[in-house]
Amino acid sequence: MNAKPFNDTFLKACRKEATEHVPVWYMRQAGRYQPEYRAIRAKHSFFEMNYIPEVCAEVTRLPVEQLGVDAAILFADIMTPLQPIGVDVNIESGIGPVISNPIRSLADVNRLGELDPLSHVPYIMEAIKILRQQLNVPLIGFAGAPFTLASYMIEGGPSKHYHKTKAFMYTEPEAWQALMDKLGDMTITYLKAQIEAGAQAVQVFDSWVGALNDEDYRTYIAPVMHRIFSALKETGVPTIYFGVGAGHLLLEWNQLPVDVVGLDWRMTIKKARELGVTKALQGNLDPTLLLAPWEMLEAKAKEILEQGTEQPGYIFNLGHGIFPDAKVETLQRLTQFIHSFKKNA
Ligand code: CP3
């Protein structure tokens, strides 16, 4: 369907191979900042857009066609696999995931079912298959990491301090472990199914794990993340791990069998390298700079590109998702700027 040759710069960078230009994609590259997305969203609930593979594929392709990015990310949510295992979740515009039956006890954890991707989320697998026919860039599959999923499941929605989640972790160690085990199994099963269907890389979003200090991360989270990335390693597909405000966990992450580490804007790429991070890196422009004057945005992007290209294995991205008030034209211009960047030029 697509006459253009396959653009594999993103996959090469994941493997720390040299690339002719710096590959770029953006977290939340499909979203409300796009008029086309808003028009489709006006007709469907968020999950409906997921359930109809053709719509899911269309929304996934939008930023590839409109911005010219080097990778597509499946249009779904980290909450997508939770509904079928018994979590009553809805996505409310401007709020995020809201859950009507939050986890409060071991009994609640034990009630959660097991994910069977082919029967529970066949539409995701179908959308991946359709996209592989249509795309000339790699397709990234994704899942939420256990801590980040648990934070929504326990708090019942978005949270600032995750105090219910952390209190559960500290006071109900057995239930917490059971929850991490279940969510770990689910993440492995779900991502392996996405890879089987055709996803060419996978990103694990641990957006809120920066709420933990490094010691708690080691105790409560590192084992399950180790298990997840070890299982994915068997597939040979590149893996990415991302979190917000998690710079203090980078050395823990560097020990995981993951290929790429995603940084937010709080820690520079230079500092991450100086700390001893040896993985390929992805990031990390502050998404609020998309709302700043172009000259400022360009100067910051250039600084990041210069740091990123010090070593092979660098993918440009934002430090977190695009805000709905960003402009399509700004992202188009930024993408062109990244693609035309030459080291030491
Ligand atoms: O383009 C893409 O990035 C792919 C699709 C994608 C979405 N969510 C679509 C979405 C991806 C990869 C996610 C991941 C996700 N979802 C994360 C991890 C990344 C991150 O942002 O930290 C998290 C924490 C969630 C949970 C979630 N879902 C939030 C915080 C929100 C946003 C709330 C809002 O309205 O701003 C959602 C909803 C959501 N997921 C939207 C999109 C496009 C907006 C939905 C809408 O149209 O109302």
Structure commentary:
With 345 residues, the chain is an alpha/beta fold. The chain has a single domain, classed as Alpha-Beta Barrel (TIM Barrel). It has 15 helices and nine strands. A seven-stranded parallel sheet has the order 1-4-5-6-7-8-9. It has a two-stranded antiparallel sheet with strand order 2-3. Strand 5, helix 11 and strand 6 (239-242) form a beta-alpha-beta unit. Helix 9 (163-171) packs across helix 10 (173-197) and helix 10 (173-197) runs parallel beside helix 11 (214-233). The longest helix has 25 residues, at 173-197. The radius of gyration is 19 Å and the shape is globular. Residues 27-32, 41, 46, 73, 75, 77-78, 91, 93-94, 96-97, 142, 205, 207, 321 line the site of coproporphyrinogen III.
Defining traits:
two-stranded antiparallel sheet; binds coproporphyrinogen III; single chain; alpha/beta; 7-stranded parallel β-sheet; TIM Barrel; 345 residues
Q: Strands across the major sheet, in which order?
A: 1-4-5-6-7-8-9
Mean pLDDT across every amino acid position? 97
Count of discrete alpha- or pi-helical segments spanning 4 or more residues: 15
Number of strands: 9
Q: How many separate structural domains? A: 1
List low-confidence stretches: none
Helix-residue proportion: 40-55%
Bound molecules: coproporphyrinogen III
CATH architecture name: Alpha-Beta Barrel
Order of helices and strands: HHHHEEEHHHEHHHEHEHEHEHEH
Task: Tell me the distance between the termini.
Answer: 37 Å
The CATH topology is what?
A: TIM Barrel
Question: Which range does the strand content fall in?
Answer: 5-15%
Largest sheet: 7 strands, parallel
Structural class: alpha/beta
Shape: globular
What top-tier CATH class fits best?
A: Alpha Beta
Radius of gyration: 19 Å
